[in-house]
Structure to design on (245 residues):
């Protein structure tokens, strides 16, 4: 049976507290699922991890939305779970410590998913405040059930796309890696892709490497009161530089 793995930092009281909230939401909306806390890599140990892995940065310009050490730490935390999916030879649900469930999820859908990646997390942008063309672009995530994402081959860069008129079929990148199912097949593709270099996890998981499906409506959202990654607050009450150890 599929299991949930929540990436958290056991030394951080803040991380432990929000992880407990995620655990409660999983028990409510995915009853019967086994839930495990997965101790992630932190910014203090990631550089040795990076050296030992002998990987390179594929595009340094894709980093910088957050602190580089924290961005690398979360990437390696996700990669450890891809390795776990391969070792167990089964689907696993990967969650970050702020991925709260708000809608019911059919366990059967997750356990029997045969694709590469099934995204359960809603993008954390506030669509209601976007200009009309961006609201129209967001309609690609309206629907019900497991939906295969259309592939856009126009080479969009998210940071640019957000400020220009988007292509309405653009769904190349995962846009938030806070809640997704990874299959052994998908995990193998992502791990193989690291040979060409790495970028932040939510951009690394993209349709040049794997086929992405979405479970709609997305049953998980980010409950973000603080961030250990981002440099700047994207919402009024978001606490940045929130490391507490």
């Amino acid at each position: 049976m599929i299991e949930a793995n929540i990436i958290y930092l056991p030394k951080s009281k803040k991380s432990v507290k929000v992880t407990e909230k995620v655990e409660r939401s999983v028990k409510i909306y995915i009853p019967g699922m086994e839930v495990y806390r997965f101790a992630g890599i932190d910014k203090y140990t990631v550089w040795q991890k990076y050296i030992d892995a002998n990987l390179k940065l594929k595009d340094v310009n894709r980093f910088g939305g957050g602190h580089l050490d924290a961005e690398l730490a979360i990437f390696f935390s996700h990669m450890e779970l891809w390795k776990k999916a391969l070792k167990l030879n089964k689907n696993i649900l990967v969650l970050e410590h702020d991925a709260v469930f708000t809608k019911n999820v059919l366990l059967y859908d997750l356990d029997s998913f045969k694709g590469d990646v099934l995204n359960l997390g809603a993008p954390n942008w506030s669509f209601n405040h976007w200009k009309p063309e961006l609201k129209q672009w967001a309609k690609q995530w309206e629907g019900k059930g497991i939906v295969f994402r259309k592939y856009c081959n126009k080479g969009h860069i998210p940071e640019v796309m957000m400020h220009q008129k988007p292509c309405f079929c653009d769904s190349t990148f995962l846009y938030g890696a806070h809640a997704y199912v990874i299959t052994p097949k998908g995990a193998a593709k992502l791990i193989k892709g690291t040979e060409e270099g790495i970028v932040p996890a939510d951009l690394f998981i993209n349709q040049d490497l794997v086929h992405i499906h979405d479970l709609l409506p997305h049953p998980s959202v980010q409950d973000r009161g603080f961030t250990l990654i981002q440099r700047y607050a994207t919402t009024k009450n978001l606490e940045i530089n929130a490391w507490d150890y």
Summary: The longest strand covers residues 3-8. Residues 66 and 193 are 22 Å apart (CA to CA). Strands lie at 3-8, 34-39, 92-96, 99-101, 117-119, 145-148, 179-182, 212-216, 220-222.
